[in-house]
Amino acid sequence: MQPVCLTFDNGPEPTTTPLVLEVLARRGIQASFFPIGTKLHDPARRALAERALAEGHRIGNHTLHHGVPLGRRPAAEAVAEITGAEALLHGLNAHRLFRPNGGGGQVGPHLLNRAALNHLTTEAYSVVLWNAVPRDWDDAEGWPDRALAAARQAQAPVLMVLHDLLPDAMAHLDRVLGTLTDEGARFTPDFPAACLPLVAGRPAPGYELTKICQEENAT
């Protein structure tokens, strides 16, 4: 079985993030969390992000408001989604990680516009994509089967997107991780190279950034 890298988007949530952190700690697994920037205005949610960092997980930028993917926004608005979130992440995003929102988990040129890509390049961000999206946010009971199938069938290292949003969905997390462990999965905090089109502001060799970026800025 291929290595599995776990990531959690759209938190932190007081009803769910502690459960996720407890499962990861019990399993000895390090993951990465990509919170929505505006949630960090709330001291309780900010404290959860700080807890995740203190427990060895990485924290990244997942835009200020989420919503419409950046490739479908005006240039200045897209950049503001990144800079606004980064201001609220102060002290948390040491690795300069950025994950665009996919609008349902799709990868394509809707993810970024040229202004956003230029900003990420200039500011030396690493862009973290994905190759497994079991849709836990809209199917709390069915996502475990899709997650297990994605890991079992993978021909390359897996970067899985989960969400520390719904407690009913994350109630299955320990079972999924236990099953994968029993089947020989190795969990790693390292992102697969194929899911990193931009590393510290530099395009990955051979990666066509037009795959994730509109050719022209929106107006």
TrEMBL record:
Recorded GO MF terms: hydrolase activity, acting on carbon-nitrogen (but not peptide) bonds; metal ion binding
One record GO biological process: carbohydrate metabolic process
Pfam families: Polysacc_deac_1
UniProtKB keywords: Hydrolase, Metal-binding
Gene3D superfamilies with a match to the protein in the record: Glycoside hydrolase/deacetylase (3.20.20.370)
Span of the signal peptide: none
A GO term from the CC aspect: membrane
Keyword field contains Metal-binding: yes
Record domain NodB homology: where: 2-188
Domain of life where this protein originates: Bacteria
UniProt-listed InterPro entries: Glyco_hydro/deAcase_b/a-brl, NODB_dom, Polysacc_deacetylase_ArnD
Transmembrane segments: none
Family per similarity comment: Belongs to the polysaccharide deacetylase family.
Job description of the protein: Is involved in generating a small heat-stable compound (Nod), an acylated oligomer of N-acetylglucosamine, that stimulates mitosis in various plant protoplasts.
Name of the protein described by the UniProt record: Chitooligosaccharide deacetylase
Lineage: Bacteria, Pseudomonadati, Pseudomonadota, Alphaproteobacteria, Acetobacterales
